[in-house]
Each structure stands twice: as structure tokens, then as C-alpha cells.
């Protein structure tokens, strides 16, 4: 199991944070964070439910992470292991995550796949998302997997889709000409674009695209 303690900073604030695997006693707190992070009009049926969270810790407890500050759950990140071939990258979020239940987790796979990353708005600014991502990288190395992979929303793309293809827009994001709150954050975490997948998720802002971004295990 995973457990790490460290200090986190936001301007002149400093707090001790614990990154650990979440358990059944954390479920209510994790669901409340989803509600605060994704308020209406975000569809409530897309928040985590207890059945999904229970499936996470039943199928791959090591990949079910949360961060706790001063005894309060401040965010979570969930992953599963899949067999991924970069030559055949197309998939949807629903397909590869089993609609968030991860019952398709395979210990024989080669890739740690990100299901979700969520930070409580009260704790934004502590860079907890990046710390959880680093924890997932450590799990990749520990399990000797090839990569961490996940599909990121591109919420600014709809503003430019009439005159830029998705590949052109991704190039502008990676060159620093434009910024996107999701993709730029993932770039800052060390992830690199692999493929923009049409139909990855139902998201008007992203024009239904998801950008697959990976972090390769530097020891393989």
C-alpha cells in the first residue's frame, strides 16, 4: 500500500499533507469533494458513487489515492492497469475505465491509466494535483510499468475549433502560444501528448476530444 507524508505550500501557508490509499471510511468525503469541485450544471450522476469507490479498492487498492491535510480529505486520484498498444490508441473513457468501475483492471497490463483527478476547491493553490500525479509516477516505477497514461479534456478548444484542427491546437498548446487549464497543467506535471482521440468523451467544450498524454517510465 502507498503512504507518504510531506509539506505543501500556498503563499505563506504551510501544511503537512499525507498521500495514502483511500478506504471505505473516506467515501463520504470523496463524494463531497466531487460535489464541490463539479457543481451544477455538471451532471450529478457523473460524481463518484459508493459502488464505484468500493470497486476501486476491491480491484486495485494501490491505485486509489487521496491526499489529506490536517485530517481533512483534500483530493483524490484513481487509476487502473490496462494493456495499451500505442499503435492502436483509440478508445473512449467509458471503455477503458469500465465507466469508472475499473472491473477491467489487469495486473498483467503495461500501463497505469488515470481514471480521475479531483481537488477540493478549498485546497487549490497547494499544487495537490501535481503531488498526486507524482505519487502515481512512483507507482509506475514501483510496478515496473511502461507508462502512466490518461485522456485530458481540452476545455478551451471550442473557442478555436472553427479555424484550427485539433492537432494544430495541440501544437500551439505545447509551443506555449496558447494555454488550456487542463492540458497546460498536465504538461507542467511532465506528461507529453500522444494522440488526440475524437469521441473520447461527451464534452462540448472539448468538441468531444480527449488528448491522450503519457509519462514514460524512465527506467524502462
UniProtKB/TrEMBL annotation:
Q: Which organism is it from?
A: [Bacillus] enclensis
What's one Pfam family here?
A: Acetyltransf_1
Segments forming domain N-acetyltransferase: 17-218
What protein name does the entry list? Acetyltransferase (GNAT) family protein
**What InterPro entries does this protein map onto?**
Acyl_CoA_acyltransferase, GNAT_dom
Q: Provide this UniProt record's keywords sorted from A to Z.
A: Transferase
Report if keyword Transferase is assigned.
yes
The entry lists its GO molecular-function terms as: acyltransferase activity, transferring groups other than amino-acyl groups
Has UniProt tagged this entry with the keyword Transferase?
yes
